[in-house]
Amino acid sequence: MLLALWKERKGRHGVCLIYQRLLKLKSVFVELVLRYAFKCHRKTEAGRDIVYPVNSIAFHPIYGGTFATGGCDGFVNIWDGNNKKRLYQYSKYPTSISALSFSRDGQLLAVASSYTFEEGEKSYEPEAIFVRNVNEIEVKPKPKVYPNPAA
Question: Which of 6, 22, 42, 120 could be a cystine partner for 38, CB 3.0 to 4.6 Å?
Fold first, then answer.
C-alpha cells in the first residue's frame, strides 16, 4: 500500500491511496469533499480484464490536478485529476515502474524501472533510471467541457 499527500493552490489538502487502483480523496480540514477512483493500469486480453498494481504516483508541481502513475505493467500514465481523464501514456519501459518524481519546475520526470517481483522470481531487465523531458501538452489539463442544455 502506498500513500501520497499534497497541498493544492487553493489551500485544500489531498490524500492518495494506491492499491491496484488509485483512490484520490480530497478534503478540507479532514472533511471529504470529493471521492473518485481511476482504473489506471489495466488491459483486456482474451476477454479478461488484467489489473496491474500501481507502484508510484507523482504530482505535477505546476498543474495541481495533474499527476503521474507508474505500475507493474511498465507504463507511466499522466492524469487530469479534475476531469478524471488520462492525458498521456508514455511508451512502455523495460520492466515495472517502481518510482516517479517530477522536477521542481515540472519540465522533467524521473522514472525508476525495476522489477518488483509481482510475478515471483524470474529473469528480468536490469534496474534503470530514466529522466525524460515533459512537454506541456502531456501534462496541461484540458478545459472542462460542459454539455449545452437543450433549448
Answer: 22
